[in-house]
């Protein structure tokens, strides 16, 4: 048995599916998983010695690339001062100040340990603040794995929801309404029926967990108006969008101001973190000031905060966003030309340093459009690229991430690999 096969066997005998988070098992691309040994910049090294250009980048936190020197130094120094105190540190205050100054709608911030926790808390807070029960989310948007959010649209009728995971009770699912992203008519219909009991509309302002789907013109503004009209809160899940497109959140660019915002990923620089923030009058309903309970032994953990602060300070100083976008555009333009040359129906929706790979020539408005694309072609592409040292996120629903460490040489090598890979795809 090779070392790789041994690791697969050991992992599967010790952990369900061999992993601590399901997508890592590579089941949606029908392959054996890889195991990471180390990583630096844009490159991930596997235990079997392969050097991969990484477009997964831990699914988003690593906008500065793997093991950025600022971040590594901050973590090392923080750890040496103590890894957890469970009393407040000045660094946490600074982190909250930095977030509130970058994202003005976040007047108060609470740090938590994951994006899931931020979204879960946002819902509880919205329910507590409005004294209402229901929340509205969108098909194909991911908000972590809290019960109320593991709910999908039932077949056919918008709004009749069902649990998308075993173990989520009917009672829980029935308070979550599901609309199609970018479909105003779904929202209107659901609010007509349930508006009086709606606590929050929760949305990824740019949907980056079903490939990459941009909000249609005016869609977020429409949600703002609908929330106001029925007295619900508008919650932006900026776990991916936070500090990804600008030094702020997508709300800074689109001009729509939510009541609450969830953050995660980039703000922890690769360490576990999440944040919830928003209007002071709402946030101050959290314990200890208010009656909505939320707590965490490791909340605002000093090592995570150090990594996050180092990341945010670097982003603020360098403002790498235009350059990130240029690199991403150069890459996707070249990839797109190759696909066109081979007559393969393919779209590469792009925003900032994100792009998605969607095998269709049909318009993409939401989840159903992505679901109908050729997943076989994505599998074939994934494998053909991996064999040439290019690592895509292992699912057609995940978005690809560039970092400031991805440069022209990575782009060129990716384009070369893509040319060969798409020939394989064309044959499938
Ligand atoms: C990743 C993600 C989450 C969940 O964050 P975790 O840190 O994985 O719990 C929530 N919302 C969005 C939009 C995400 O992409």
Radius of gyration: 21 Å
Per CATH, the architecture of the largest domain is 3-Layer(aba) Sandwich
Distance between the termini: 31 Å
The total of beta strands comes to 16
Oligomer: single chain
User: Quick check: average pLDDT?
Assistant: 96
Strand content: 5-15%
Overall shape: globular
Largest sheet: 7 strands, mixed
Helix content: 25-40%
Name of the level-1 CATH class of the largest domain:
Alpha Beta
Number of helices: 14
As for the CATH topology of the largest domain, it is: Aspartate Aminotransferase, domain 2
Unreliable stretches covering 5 or more consecutive residues: none
Question: What are the SSEs and their pairings?
Answer:
Layout: H1 3-14, E1 36-40, E2 43-46, E3 51-54, H2 69-80, H3 90-102, E4 108-112, H4 115-130, E5 134-139, E6 151-153, E7 161-163, H5 170-173, E8 176-180, H6 184-194, E9 198-203, H7 219-230, E10 233-237, H8 250-254, E11 260-264, E12 274-278, H9 280-283, H10 302-318, H11 321-341, E13 350-351, E14 354-355, H12 367-371, H13 375-387, E15 390-391, E16 400-401, H14 408-426
Helix pairs in contact: 2-10, 3-10, 6-7, 11-14, 13-14
